[in-house]
Design brief:
- Helix content is 24%, strand content 21%.
- It is an alpha+beta fold and 373 residues long.
- The protein has three domains: 36-149, Uridine Diphospho-n-acetylenolpyruvylglucosamine Reductase, domain 2 (2-Layer Sandwich); 156-282, Uridine Diphospho-n-acetylenolpyruvylglucosamine Reductase, domain 3; 287-371, Alpha-Beta Complex (Uridine Diphospho-n-acetylenolpyruvylglucosamine Reductase, domain 1), CATH 3.90.78.
- The strands form six sheets. The chain has a five-stranded mixed β-sheet with strand order 2-3-4-7-5. It has a five-stranded antiparallel β-sheet with strand order 8-9-14-12-13. A three-stranded antiparallel β-sheet has the order 15-16-17.
- A hairpin with a 7-residue loop joins strand 16 and strand 17.
- Helix 4 (173-182) runs antiparallel to helix 7.
- The longest helix has 19 residues, at 338-356.
- The two termini are 12 Å apart.
Length: 373
């Protein structure tokens, strides 16, 4: 599978996971990088893979965001919002890996968000959207263009009469789940353990414990690539398992409205919410940085079970390891690189396909240039 990862626009969400601790050591595969001139660049993308030569990479794309960039921040006209150069992205993703953004901005309002889009357009730059960074693997080389962080787009308005809540794209799902439960509203208990933001959850149709975003979404406000704002219903978003119409498009969710069921005893709803959280903590590894589930479940199979059956629990490359507790998690044991994680993903796909004739599709979004060793 040859080509280059060419995601030019993505939307994701994420948790705030602590600093890496120490993994139990297991045997590394000792993979080494070949000379760049002999390397084939691999594509993991929602778009059809494209084949390009190494020389093309060296002469164009790579030179663009590895060239010197002015360190002086740029103030967006008419705002207090600053666009900053060469901002490390590793501390903005739950994997705690990844290189710098060529440019980074974190707007606090829709006006600043639109101004950010306009600036990128005038500079003819690609845009990458970054929520809390949980469902994301960014290349060690970083990302070209403008990375727009949405985690500051936070607000919540509860309507007691209708049982609806409208929230900003940057609102963390766990915090929203607790706010809803404390009001005695039902229908969002399942979301308490999902380490992401509302915007990313709407795009990915996040779900757990039999519930998902499409079950309760009324509509989403979306900023189109041309600057126009539209409100789309759940039906218009064409939801399916962990997918929506929003994926692969230059559209950004700015806020979403959900329909809940008010009138229940807050203590009962809070207890149910706590139960979901405790279950996730007892069955999934949260003691080290990860992105959550790496692969989507294929059909009636569980990805974690398939990985376990091929004997890959504890498998390690560099500082990255498949979790012993749950095989659909890859952990950063403290010194992992994005390349380490990428190589494990590819190895898992190969092993599972060879034994089960099933291709595991990554649930994690993979952005930037990666070399397949």
């Amino acid at each position: 599978m040859d080509g280059v990862i060419t995601h030019r626009f993505s939307c994701v969400g994420s948790p705030e996971i602590g600093l890496p601790q120490t993994c139990n050591k297991s045997q590394s595969n000792g993979l080494s990088l070949k000379d760049l001139s002999a390397v084939i660049i691999m594509t993991l993308s929602y778009d059809p893979p494209k084949v390009i030569t190494t020389q093309t990479i060296l002469n164009s794309r790579l030179s663009r965001y590895e060239s010197p960039v002015p360190e002086q921040p740029i103030r967006l006209p008419g705002t207090d919002c600053l666009i900053k150069a060469q901002i490390p992205l590793s501390h903005l993703t739950s994997f705690r890996v990844g290189g710098p953004a060529e440019w980074y901005v974190a707007p606090r309002s829709l006006t600043e968000l639109q101004a950010s889009f306009e600036w990128a357009s005038t500079q003819e730059m690609p845009i990458t959207l970054l929520g809390a960074g949980s469902n994301l693997l960014i290349s060690d080389r970083g990302l070209p263009g403008l990375v727009v962080g949405t985690r500051r787009l936070r607000h919540a308005a509860f309507d007691a009469e209708t049982g609806q809540v409208t929230v900003g794209a940057g609102e963390p799902l766990p915090r929203l789940a607790w706010q809803i439960a404390e009001r005695g509203w039902q229908g969002f208990e399942w979301a308490v353990g999902i380490p992401g933001t509302v915007g990313g959850a709407v795009v990915m149709n996040a779900g757990a414990h039999g519930g998902c975003i499409s079950d309760c979404l009324v509509n989403a406000q979306v900023l189109m690539s041309n600057g126009i704002i539209k409100t789309l219903t759940a039906d218009e978003l064409e939801y399916a398992y962990r997918t929506s119409k929003l994926q692969g498009k230059n559209w950004l969710v700015t806020q979403a409205t959900f329909q809940l069921k008010p009138g229940a005893d807050p203590e009962v709803v809070t207890a149910e919410t706590s139960s979901h959280l405790n279950h996730r903590r007892s069955t999934q590894p949260y003691h080290l940085p990860s992105c959550g589930s790496v692969f989507r479940n294929p059909g009636n199979y569980k990805a974690g079970w398939l990985i376990e059956q091929v004997g890959l629990k504890g498998f390690q490359i560099g500082g990255a390891q498949i979790a012993q507790r749950h095989a659909n998690f890859i952990l950063n044991c403290g010194s992992a690189t994005a390349s380490d994680i990428f190589q494990i993903i590819h190895h898992v796909q190969q092993e599972v396909e060879q034994q089960w004739r099933l291709l595991l599709e990554p649930e994690v979004r993979i952005l930037g240039d990666f070399q397949l060793v």
